[in-house]
Amino acid sequence: MKVKYIYMLSIASLMTMASCSGVLDIEPDGRIDIDDVWEDNDMTGAYLNGCYNYYANNGGLNNYYFQTNPFEAVSDDVWECDAEVETGLTHAMAYNGSASASTHPMTQYGENNSRGNNMRTWANAFEGVRKCNMFLAHIDEANVKSETNRARWKAEARLLRAAIYSELVQYYGALPPILTKPNMYDDDFSFVQKYNGGANHSEGIRKIIDFIFADLDTAMMEETIPWRNTSDGEKNRVTKALALAIKSRYALFAASPLNKAMTWEEAYQINQAALQQLRDNGYELYKTCSTPGTYDIYGTKGQIKYEKGAKAAAALSEYFVLGADYSTSPRDKETIFETRANTGAGPWDVNGVGFQNAYRCGMVPTQELVDQFENVVYNSSEATESYFVVDLAKPYLDHTHLVPNYNSENPVYDAMNPYVDRDPRFYMTVTYNECIREAYWKNAETDGRTGQVWAGEQIRRKTIWTNKEDDYTGIHVSERYRTRTGYYMNKYVHPTAGGNNYVNATRFKMYRLAEVILNTAECAIESGRVPEGMALINEIRERAAMPALPTNPTTEEARLYLRHERRIELVAEEIRFNDLRRWTELDGDMTDVEWSTAMEISWLGDDPNGVPMYSYTRRTVRQSPRQCYSHKWLWLPIPLSEQNKLGTLTGEEWQNSGW
After folding, report:
1. Which 3 state secondary structure label does DSSP give 493?
2. Span 11-39, average pLDDT
3. What residues have CB less than 8 Å from 316, skipping those under 6 apart?
4. Pick from 23, 20, 16, 22: nearest CA to 6
5. How far apart, in whole angstroms, are the C-alpha atoms of residue 225 and residue 472?
6. Whole-prediction pTM value?
């Protein structure tokens, strides 16, 4: 048997010839007509499988491998260290201001390449839309053996189309045209209406959101669509839970200041109903580490000194390292939908301590992110009080973030010992100075403090020193495997992964219950239900073994609490940059967060008791800010080739402002 291709017109580019590569397995007797597909049950099902190729193929920190995730790299939570190594990489273009409509970092990766289609690129997304439309145009008359399959396949195609459009509206705004038929290049496209920009923006966003929600509601009514997939063979198929998670995220998106396409009351009703249905159908937060012998390291290494905090960090670490399981009694009841792609790259190799495998450290946390993790007061069992490190409303007194606006009521924070007694999520997210990692280390090393020589290619217990004097894990301005900020990413990293224990990257959790809870909390706060919103925020904090926040603050205080909690809970999950965008007015920009800072630590020797002494100096990661926070970065551009095709077809100019 040999793979053959059906050539057809791509709506993605409205004229590009594209193939269903890898979808149909037929006898090598020449090309087949598309109409022949619908005469065969198996080929009809295979065509739907091809529709899945355009959604959820990549995402997260590690499923982009060498280029890393551009949607995270442009957030203020991380810095991509390769930007100083190779200026031609896509994220370097964003940082340096050289990105254009044709070289935009978020649209260049994964465009019909070997690592899978990037679902956020204009061409790939619309190619997926066209395939869904083609399937929906023929499924009713297709030769399908089972009417149960026909009903489910049809609902899946509508849900997939909605999911693809949700990515389009999030990143391209009101610009994407709504297409419901598999149009050909010579069709009349006068029906296509442009809404982007100005007074039309909110109306256009609303039309696309309504279109998405109509597809989702139709799919939800199909009884054969499950709430949860319960076997590995179906783990990538869409579910009712995914439909509700999409509604939750994009009702919030529609109501936010950037769009104002839905009232907060309507967004709340949608989110509250979605959250309740998810709970009713067995979704719940992941709270218990199933393999504590592997992950319960935060208490044993003395990072977290109260029992509930150590257990919470262990559970969260395990959750992000392990993939979702698919059974009738799953260990993980929080994950709603994972990506299909898994590059095989271990986070320890491409987004961890770079010296471990002599390769790269990828994206590293910024000082701005570290400043957000609260201090705690605790007893042996639990945290009894918590304090913000910096003022949430105005965390810095200068534009470059070198002068923190410390919380004067915080009795715990010590600028000379800044990493003790923090939110447990700090320890499972960030590797900082004097962290210990016991794993397989590829490189040899001469300890700069003791002179001890360590051979390479061995398992050993290593202290991660990030002070600038350290030649292996210390902060550096350009080494690929050394941090730019004084920190390394710990989230997603298996505790003992290494060259002897190659733990692959897990599939990225595109949607999980914690986000839906926080989406609902935000809508509750903005619609005047502050106590309800705070109760939901405190549910997330309780899982993290953090004390509750005030239950009835002012709306402005509640808004600050909500935004703080989203940043901590959802770090490195492709959400922060989109939050920054949607909290911005349509005519605004994000220049308040254009600077990123580092903690430059110097080792001053040891005191008489052998305890290391350090100085701590905040500095900007580099002398110039990142160039990806101006007004035009609120939306992605259509590549020029696609823009020209749309202009030819419709007689109008298509592009987002500034590109």
Report:
1. coil
2. 49
3. 286, 424, 425, 428, 544
4. 20
5. 52
6. 0.94
